[in-house]
Amino acid sequence: MFSTWVLLLPFLSSLPALVQAGETCNATSVCASRAPCCSEFGFCGTDEFCLGGCNALSSHEKDSCKPAPVCRDATYTFADNSRILSNVTYYEGNATAHDWVLDSGNMFNTNSSGGELALTLTKENGGSRMSSTRYVFYGTITAKLKTGRWPGVVVAFITMSDIKDEIDWEFPGDGGRVGETNYFWQGVIPEKSNGDKHEADTETFSNYHDYTVNWQPETLTFLIDGKVVRTVKRSEAVVNGVSHYPSTPSRVQLSIWPAGIESSAPGTVEWAGGMIDYEHEDYKSAGQFYTLVKSIEIKCADTQPTTGNITSYVWGADSTSQSPVVIYSNSSTLLNGASGMHGAIQQPLQLWMTGLVGLLVVFGVCM
Ligand SMILES: *[C@@H]1O[C@H](CO)[C@@H](O)[C@H](O)[C@H]1NC(C)=O
Ligand SMILES: *[C@@H]1O[C@H](CO)[C@@H](O)[C@H](O)[C@H]1NC(C)=O
Ligand SMILES: *[C@@H]1O[C@H](CO)[C@@H](O)[C@H](O)[C@H]1NC(C)=O
Ligand SMILES: *[C@@H]1O[C@H](CO)[C@@H](O)[C@H](O)[C@H]1NC(C)=O
Ligand SMILES: *[C@@H]1O[C@H](CO)[C@@H](O)[C@H](O)[C@H]1NC(C)=O
Ligand SMILES: *[C@@H]1O[C@H](CO)[C@@H](O)[C@H](O)[C@H]1NC(C)=O
């Protein structure tokens, strides 16, 4: 079985070590068979460790993680929050039952103008993150949302693959009309940041804007209110002969995250516009900081038909691009014998709250 991993990770010079349940895993120390799945936070386990975010490159076998629910065209609105599972602990991999899972924090529905979803940040909850149950493997994703306007508070709308391909819209602090875009390949921190800044017509706290990621196999386009503000080409993302272009099925995630806190590095605090002020008038009147989400539209752009018996994406053989090939499959995405609740191990969600940018700034790399 070790040969699988030598094939999967041809760039490794030695065989991977095997890691037990609850211990940390990575591409060089993969999980042992008894706790085969490496969670998105880098811990070995079973059950929910094998669902959304499970990293095949650090798991026991490439197919240890459950197959990823395939993309379906949809427009999600939030007249109520019935399609969002409010506690991810109860998620069993059934993307028909739930469109979204709340990974951490709190949400509520405002009921105003047809209903809005609010994700909250309080002193106590450490922020909130919601993930789609289905994956997108190329497609156009548009979020109509209102950001924060508070120093130290970051709002993010991103796509994140299980092997850490990532595409970001980020709104740190009081950016006025500004949103930031970024992208990453397999969690690699580029020598020169891929980040960029863009302006909406009006400021982003009081006004809804459409933020779009149009992610196609060869071109990645970012739009505000339907207007292209940035284009990235796969052919331009080559580093040392390998294209560092996001290329694997990804979940859509929305989050609000505290960057301006004591435990953050100075670069983090600066990027986010300073320390969070929990005495802020907005915080006192609302009882929380929040981001409002009006709708999320997903138009899939799979490179193969996903009709009929196709239910999931699974990992296939390696390719020369150093990304494993993705196979369209009819395999079930459900946990076997799922019974409703699984022994959760406390994992540091906050590190991945806003994707790699969040992780970078936690460790003090200034964007
Ligand atoms: C991978 O995990 C092992 C075991 O926890 C650790 O010793 C090693 O430093 C990690 N490697 C990387 C690249 O993080
Ligand atoms: C989710 O459910 C589990 C099991 O009931 C519970 O221990 C945990 O506190 C819940 N999490 C939240 C955020 O409510
Ligand atoms: C998944 O959820 C749908 C919708 O709630 C339900 O009809 C279906 O039976 C569920 N599948 C399984 C295997 O539980
Ligand atoms: C929204 O409306 C529903 C149904 O009318 C009600 O149960 C709920 O309490 C309302 N929520 C808020 C935040 O007002
Ligand atoms: C789906 O069904 C078709 C026709 O029944 C079959 O040819 C194909 O192999 C199936 N695909 C998978 C992934 O099982
Ligand atoms: C997947 O398709 C194959 C044949 O194409 C079939 O034998 C198998 O039962 C299918 N599996 C599921 C879970 O539908």
TrEMBL record:
It holds the Pfam family Glyco_hydro_16. One of its GO terms (molecular function) is hydrolase activity, hydrolyzing O-glycosyl compounds. The chain crosses the membrane at residues 349-366. Residues 1-21 form the signal peptide. Residues 59-287 form the GH16 domain. One of its GO terms (cellular component) is fungal-type cell wall. GO terms for biological process: carbohydrate metabolic process; fungal-type cell wall organization. Gene3D superfamilies: 2.60.120.200. Keywords: Glycosidase, Hydrolase, Membrane, Signal, Transmembrane, Transmembrane helix. The keyword Signal applies. This is Glycoside hydrolase family 16 protein. It comes from Pterulicium gracile.
